[in-house]
TrEMBL record:
Signal peptide: none annotated. It comes from the Bacteria. This is Amidase. Gene3D superfamilies: Amidase signature (AS) domain. GO terms for molecular function: catalytic activity.
Amino acid sequence: MADMHDLTALEQAAAMARGELSSVDLVEHHLHRVAAIGDTVGAFVTVTPELAREAARAADAVPAESRGPLHGVPTAIKDLTLTAGVRTTFGSAAFVDFVPPVDADVVRFIKAAGLVSLGKTTTSELGCSLYSEGRVAPPARNPWQLAYTAGGSSGGAAAAVAAGLVPVAQGSDGGGSLRIPASLCGLVGYKPSRGLVSGGPLGSGAFGLPTSGPLGRTVTDVAALLDVMAVPVPGEPYLPPAAPPGGYLAAARRAEPGRLRIGRFTTPMLADEPVHPDCVAAVDRAAALLTAAGHEVVEVPAPLGPEAWPLFEVIWYVLALAPVPPQRESELLPLTRLLRARGAEVSAGALAATLGELQAQVRLGARRTAGCDLLLCPTLATPQAPVGWFTADGDPAADFDRQRRFSPYCAIFNVTGDPSVSLPLGTTTDGLPVGVLLTGRYGDDARLIAAAAQLENSSDQRDRHPAIWRAVDSANVNGDGVDRSPS
């Protein structure tokens, strides 16, 4: 018999619509799981059980005819995202007591759609790294194998979804921060087109690199949460692409993108780095499934190469210069301090020149892949990494370079602003997830989602679960992630 967390987000909402479950039922069930194994996988910085119960009771009081597709479903908010009245640490000891007075726009939309947040998920400090190992919470661990990282900066969100603590979660992606954890944890992580999801009410747009997006177990769940997030807001710095008829959930359910020309490549873009055979094999498998679905898959050159890295890293240094109280700078992690020190050395003129050169590189890359509807490549150059692997040398410069070599694909599509999704299409030789990256044309999110759903439907990797999925309390889980609860 299925447990509540076995149901996808849409299935949970449908069970509520039929009167079989209530939001209170679902919230209590998932809060129990959070209490049991949340710290084991390092999913949450802050859990808000009383706020969640209050929101669940309010959700149950809404008439059925007024409910949307995800009404009453448990979720979680990344700890980089402002939440009024709820502690938001930005993954940093420097903000351990910070409580924002306002919600981010995406949080307002999530609340308005009737979803119920259980709390704030673990992230990297100021979103600066692709792993989530800081000083304000346990490290985000991969539920498939607890010795490995769940990634970052949306690592806690991925750990929560992959462990069955919530069915969907909000995250954000400035250089792969949704897609990297999705690949590591066997999930669907979606980075929308630039401007599709509001970054307000605070912040400048950060050169268009970061955006909020959804993380979930299935493409339809992710599309449903994208519909919730993608609400136009006046004053945003980028014009949002038009929504498709019926929304993104309808596009996912149809799963009919038309016949596509898909450009395949495996050459890393931000580093001259060997690609692990398991990552290449996942791309080969995706290409075979897409070909069998009637699409044309052709080899193309990578849009950009390692020559773009010096430009991207300048931008990343500057993005690390988020306001921090001067008296608390010493509480930042070594990597964050290094990035901020380098960012402080970048002049306004050098930044403007870097942005201009980077845009020139983007134009050249677009010409190299002209005529392709989608691009297919690995999400990562290496399938997994142990917790502590990036910081093992004690040298933040080596840490930063190791991250570049581990993830030389995702960040390019933050630069271009194109929609991009990581899908769980492969496994390592020992059964751990391996993602592939499918990227669409700017503003063509509906077609990308339809193609992702079609690919998911043809794969046997859909909605797989790690052994910890069956754990009922933390005493039943040991360090290898195997559930040893009584059967």
